[in-house]
Amino acid sequence: MFDGKTIFVTGGTGSFGNSFTRMVLTDHSPERVVVFSRDEKKQHDMRLALNDERVSFVIGDIRDRPQVAYAMRGANYVFHAAALKQVPSCEFFPFEAVQTNIIGAHNVLESAEEVGVEKLVVLSTDKAVYPVNAMGQTKALMEKLMLARAQSHQTTSTTFCGVRYGNVMCSRGSVIPLFIDQIKAGKPLTVTDPKMTRLLLPLTEAVKLVTFAMEHGQQGDVLVQKATASTVEVLAQALLNLFGADNEVNIVGVRAGEKTHEVLLTPEEMIRSEEYDNYYRVPCRAGRNYEDYFSRGDLKATFIKDGYTSENATRLTVEDTEALLLSLPEVQAELKDWPTARKLKRIAA
Ligand SMILES: O=c1ccn([C@@H]2O[C@H](COP(=O)(O)OP(=O)(O)O[C@H]3O[C@H](CO)[C@H](O)[C@H](O)[C@H]3O)[C@@H](O)[C@H]2O)c(=O)[nH]1
């Protein structure tokens, strides 16, 4: 579906944008990929690394509505990945999160409609479900903006949909690179709560989910990929095993703004969802029906108690987690010259 098309990616220099752009250029023949982001250094580095004339780099901030609309002219498909996504910075500067994650998203959605984009996918997170921090709360409102626009589809020719996913493994500043640094420095591993769970997704799987949403998502859909979960204890043990290390483990306790388990779908969303092999599709409520909010209910919703969470998703054992970690190029690179690396030899063999 991307052949001959112009694709516009907000936050295009981030981990998702980078990986997605590479995939599109390798597996498809787009007319143009527009990478829209704020940081000229990251754009410079990405331009040199890709060295591909089909990619255009546009400096801009999604808070700047005229610049977004200007840059988006001619785009067929939009992927909205730009966001403030660090929990602490959003807690300390919540209005910055409002401006980027809510007002910025509004600018992107409105511009897409205005310039006649065919389809737009917004990227959300499990932290937007029952959100406890400003990052999740602003992402939840971003989802609502997408849904409200989709519900007014009598007046729009653009299809709006979204995805939610859990923790992207090895993303910048996340726990896997942190534990690896601690192992390599011979320091204790700082485990928050050993029983805390997270849904772990390799970046390649996140790219697949977003691509699937662009291909199959219907007006107002939220698409969620089935994922496996691990406790922090299991993750730490798997990394220690892979590195053949015996660092101490310090339990430091739950950090501010975090939950013990994450929720990808609420029970109420589960009851309305359609299940596929690898995905759940949550369709949006058609139109603006006040009855759905005042007088018309869904009896089935009374019978379902559980959503889809990192607590009840398929749980990885230490061995499963080792295998998943070993599939990641970032982990392979870290293990390559590590003297006591245990399992890499098995891979090489
Ligand atoms: O030193 C640490 C750091 C983290 N963890 C645990 O490891 C899991 C994953 O932690 P990450 O920091 O990798 O991921 P989070 O789920 O906390 O959220 C991360 O991903 C988010 C995007 O979804 C935001 O970017 C956020 O700022 C970022 O911390 C959590 O259970 C956390 O408690 C530890 O045990 N020890």
UniProtKB/TrEMBL annotation:
InterPro entries, A to Z: CapD_C, NAD(P)-bd_dom_sf, Polysac_CapD-like, Polysaccharide_Synthase-Rel
Recorded GO MF terms: UDP-glucose 4-epimerase activity
Keywords associated with the record: Isomerase, Lipopolysaccharide biosynthesis
Domain UDP-glucose 4-epimerase CapD C-terminal: 289-332
Keyword check for Isomerase: yes
Keyword hit for Disulfide bond: no
Pfam families noted in UniProt: Polysacc_syn_2C (PF08485), Polysacc_synt_2 (PF02719)
Domain Polysaccharide biosynthesis protein CapD-like: from-to ranges: 7-282
Catalytic activity: UDP-alpha-D-glucose = UDP-alpha-D-galactose
Any single GO BP term: lipopolysaccharide biosynthetic process
Its EC number(s): 5.1.3.2
Membrane-crossing residue ranges in chain numbering: none
PANTHER family for this protein: UDP-N-ACETYLGLUCOSAMINE 4,6-DEHYDRATASE, UDP-N-ACETYLGLUCOSAMINE 4,6-DEHYDRATASE (INVERTING)
Family listed: Belongs to the polysaccharide synthase family.
Annotated protein name in UniProt: UDP-glucose 4-epimerase
Higher taxonomy: Bacteria, Pseudomonadati, Planctomycetota, Planctomycetia, Pirellulales
Gene: capD
